[in-house]
């Protein structure tokens, strides 16, 4: 570890008043917000509605406000395909690059997100639970919340794909929590179905390793085959349900041709990421105002910047960066 780098990083994180002294630019002026380059912030949304409520539901008005502030603050929205080319060393990305993703394949992506994105010529990606595609009524009585909401049709996806949107699998039919052991309460013994062997109630035993691998392979392969047939393009990206996999599941995904795997772990993505593991920032909660969204991106950008000086800080919680972000705003207002 570089001692000077550690000192500079600690001062940045915990004594933000010293930012102008330690991080000058090459010009005669001081950069009070470093922004970021050669990194990409991937935003995660789920559902948009004027009537539904939930921790992963935002209103159309809030989504429009998010897009507005991203444009106002100079962020550049790129596609997941360009992100993939960047990560493979075949393309570059603009400063303050952002990717917009939606999970689960809700019809609201077509009804509310797509018109706003198309109007602004902004690309986005939607990860689809493949078996549910075409379920335009939803299943109101289902215990799974995502099954209660109407889903996209293949016709809608093809229309949007022709105008810059892209679609990839979110599993074929494995977006659920499953028991991995007997016991009461059951909540202590559940996990995402693709994350490991599950408990087989009828046989009163857990899946074998071979059965687990066969189940994961069958689901991911069918999702890939169906989407490639319906949309006529290769499927090399995959989003894990609940953002959780296992080393075995990740190995199977790569063997099937999925090069880029999306998670819910937070942070920006640089060209040095390993295994195609893409981190995302949650933007789809109703309490994330436009200002909070920008603050969250800035926190992760600042963390990525700090890691250039001290790579050991890669696991820092972004909450520690709040004083530094406040200080950046102070210096910018003072000298602008």
TrEMBL record:
Residue ranges constituting the Rhodanese domain according to the UniProt record: 238-289
InterPro entries hit by this protein: Glyco_hydro/deAcase_b/a-brl (IPR011330), NODB_dom (IPR002509), Polysacch_Deacetylase (IPR051398), Rhodanese-like_dom (IPR001763)
UniProt main location, coarse: secreted
GO MF term list: hydrolase activity
Organism: Desulfofundulus luciae
PANTHER family reported for this sequence: POLY-BETA-1,6-N-ACETYL-D-GLUCOSAMINE N-DEACETYLASE (PTHR34216:SF3), PTHR34216
Regions crossing the membrane: none
Name of the protein this chain belongs to: Biofilm PGA synthesis lipoprotein PgaB
Compartments where found: Secreted
């Amino acid at each position: 570890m570089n001692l000077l780098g550690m000192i500079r990083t600690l001062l940045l994180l915990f004594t933000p008043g010293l930012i102008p002294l330690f991080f000058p630019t090459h010009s005669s002026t001081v950069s009070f917000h470093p922004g970021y380059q050669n990194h990409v912030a991937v935003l995660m949304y789920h559902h948009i509605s004027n009537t539904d409520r939930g921790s992963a539901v935002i209103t159309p008005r809030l989504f429009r406000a998010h897009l507005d502030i991203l444009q106002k603050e100079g962020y550049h929205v790129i596609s997941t395909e360009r992100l993939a080319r960047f990560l493979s060393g075949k393309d570059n990305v603009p400063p303050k690059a952002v990717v917009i993703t939606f999970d689960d394949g809700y019809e609201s992506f077509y009804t509310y997100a797509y018109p706003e994105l198309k109007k602004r010529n902004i690309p986005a990606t939607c990860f689809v639970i493949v078996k549910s595609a075409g379920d335009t009524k939803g299943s109101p009585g289902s215990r799974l919340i995502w099954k209660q909401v109407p889903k996209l049709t293949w016709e809608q996806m093809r229309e949007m794909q022709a105008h810059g949107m892209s679609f990839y699998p979110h599993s074929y039919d494995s977006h659920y929590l499953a028991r991995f052991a007997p016991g009461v309460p059951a909540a202590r013994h559940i996990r995402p179905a693709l994350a490991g062997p599950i408990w087989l109630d009828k046989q009163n035993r857990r899946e074998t390793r071979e059965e687990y691998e066969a189940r994961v392979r069958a689901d991911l392969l069918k999702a890939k085959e169906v989407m490639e047939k319906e949309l006529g393009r290769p499927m090399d990206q995959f989003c894990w349900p609940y953002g959780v996999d296992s080393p075995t599941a990740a190995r199977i995904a790569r063997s099937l041709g999925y090069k880029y795997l999306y998670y819910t772990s937070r942070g920006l993505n640089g060209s040095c990421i390993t295994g195609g593991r893409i981190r995302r920032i949650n933007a789809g909660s109703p309490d994330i105002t436009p200002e909070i969204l920008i603050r969250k991106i800035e926190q992760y950008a600042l963390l990525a910047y700090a890691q250039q000086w001290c790579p050991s800080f890669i696991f820092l919680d972004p909450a520690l960066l709040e004083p530094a972000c406040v200080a950046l705003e102070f210096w910018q207002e003072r000298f602008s």
